[in-house]
Amino acid sequence: MKTLIVYAHPEQKSLNSSLKDLAVTTLESAGHDVLVSDLYAMNWKAVLDAADFGAAASSPLQIPGDSGRAFDAGILTPDVRAEQEKLMWADTIIFQFPLWWYAMPAILKGWVDRVFTYHFAYGVGAHNDTQYGERFGEGTLAGRRALLSVTAGGPEAHYAERGINGPIDDLLFPIHHGILYYPGIEVLPPFVLYGTDRMSAENYPDVVKAWTDRLLTLDSTEPIAFRKQNFGDYEIPSLHLKEGLEAAGRTGFGLHVRA
Amino acid sequence: MKTLIVYAHPEQKSLNSSLKDLAVTTLESAGHDVLVSDLYAMNWKAVLDAADFGAAASSPLQIPGDSGRAFDAGILTPDVRAEQEKLMWADTIIFQFPLWWYAMPAILKGWVDRVFTYHFAYGVGAHNDTQYGERFGEGTLAGRRALLSVTAGGPEAHYAERGINGPIDDLLFPIHHGILYYPGIEVLPPFVLYGTDRMSAENYPDVVKAWTDRLLTLDSTEPIAFRKQNFGDYEIPSLHLKEGLEAAGRTGFGLHVRA
Q1: FRET pair for B250, CA 20 to 30 Å: which of A142, A189, B57, B74?
Q2: Using a CB-CB distance cutoff of 8 angstroms, which residues of chain A are in contact with residue B165?
Q3: How many domains does chain A have?
Q4: Quick check: ipTM above 0.90?
């Protein structure tokens, strides 16, 4: 495998850093190639603005159009182009980050905002009677697989089906489906560590074993069965799921996973 | 009302900017006080790191503990303290931003990551047999109300109950419930403009009317009926919703709204 690890935590002696290091050594020992984008170490610019688009920035700024023209002309900033090239190189992408307020840290959201430009991650493919662009299962990043490795301070029960935070699968859906599956990436079930606020060194050997097991079976792990957009499950252009396709009781985000 | 508008868009001639300006003039004309945090204009630091906690930063960094000690000692950075003071001053908070990749722009997520410190927005209140901290309906920011005013490039149908993006209420739940309701803020139904990628000047008068109507009726708008954590609906400490409380057919995030 050619694996890109996108890592976002400010402390190099953190659990997240240890999980990132373990991924590097485990995958390299198994013969895989690994690149790491350590966003804090890179001093990653989190904030999308006109400077990202160079001479393609119009006034007033038009984010889709300007980013698409900058992408087409090859004049996106070097930091963004480098990340796009790593994504094209990789067949597997691991995101290692803590859940902060039920979402990505800002520096990682800013990686998405800036790297996932028009004509690269969206605004790809034609719109006609049988397709609404190439997205949700098709797109520039098709053929790749991704996995979120996240830490959550609270206990697992709070993220269960009836837990107060909401189910973890639903909390991660906007990332899994809206960010990763949108440009064509298949998404593996996440690796989630709960209760990390109260985790002690005694727990760490079990964590190492669980994470190593996941890393060494990435190749054979089945992705989440999200429905492709343009292959008959959705009305076009409303993109409503056609009636009767869902399993009994499935609602909300769950509709978009095949029964 | 004392209204804080937290605004995040890089272009001062954008729809988002117009909506922010309209909110200022509409509310001030109606006799309300308004403060604006224009995150791009402020060059808001989006990335949480050890520098946020000054002398309270430990090595290795412990984000909850360090941010809580910095808050208690009054040594958080001036930018963060100013935002916390604005939140304490306000009784109403409006967030004006575009949905980028189904979530906040990074600069706004970084406002949450940095301003919502331990002992301010979380880590408040005791844990015992009848409460699990003061959160989800209680907390430092109780007594305040918030509203998300968001723009979405795609058409409304894609955000409907069966739409491919998932229902808008579910996409916004991690912000509504996980970020705003968590420290005690009541959340009003959002003001969402869809299809803004294809919106023309002809559409703008209708937008002005709709947004003005919402602004002038904020006082009398009922908040989303999220369930309070510590008042009998949840088991403690699992924080599972007790069986039988939900309306028929409600699952996932919807469980946490009263029938």
Answers
A1: A189
A2: 178, 239
A3: 1
A4: yes
